[in-house]
Amino acid sequence: MAWTLLIIAGILEIGWAIGLKYTEGFTRLWPSVWTGTAMVISMYLLAQAARTLPIGTAYAVWVGIGAAGTAILGMYLFAEPRDVARILCIVLIVAGVVGLKVLH
Fold it and tell me: Which of 7, 30, 90, 97 has the smallest number of CB atoms closer than 10 Å to its CB?
């Protein structure tokens, strides 16, 4: 159950990170509400997962899911660079997350 909560928390981290772009510095109401809500729920779920999982593993996986997912969506939604080095770095992040799961 902790891993499920952690994955959901990571997905919500992607949501709030992407949401930051749409808030325009928290000047737009509904994107700001969604972003703030996603932040709170994401951190709450991370905290719940960390009750069972080691904090280092939980935090690293949460950040990894958020970082890789946000980078991928940034390429798709905002036409951010898609060069080989960037994609390789994302693959390394994903490999680290998978490694932490397997080694736990």
Answer: 30
Overall pTM surpassing 0.90 (yes/no) = yes
* Domain positions in the chain: 2-103
pLDDT band at 103 (very low <50, low <70, confident <90, very high): confident
Burial class of residue 16 in the structure, from the number of CB atoms within 10 Å of its CB (0-12 exposed, 13-18 middle, 19+ buried) = buried
Helices (H), 24-83: 29-50, 55-78
* Torsion angle, alpha carbons of 46, 22, 81, 71, to 10: 10
What tokens were used for 82?
A: 């898609």
The angle at the Cα of 12, spanning 50 to 37, to the nearest 5 degrees, equals 100
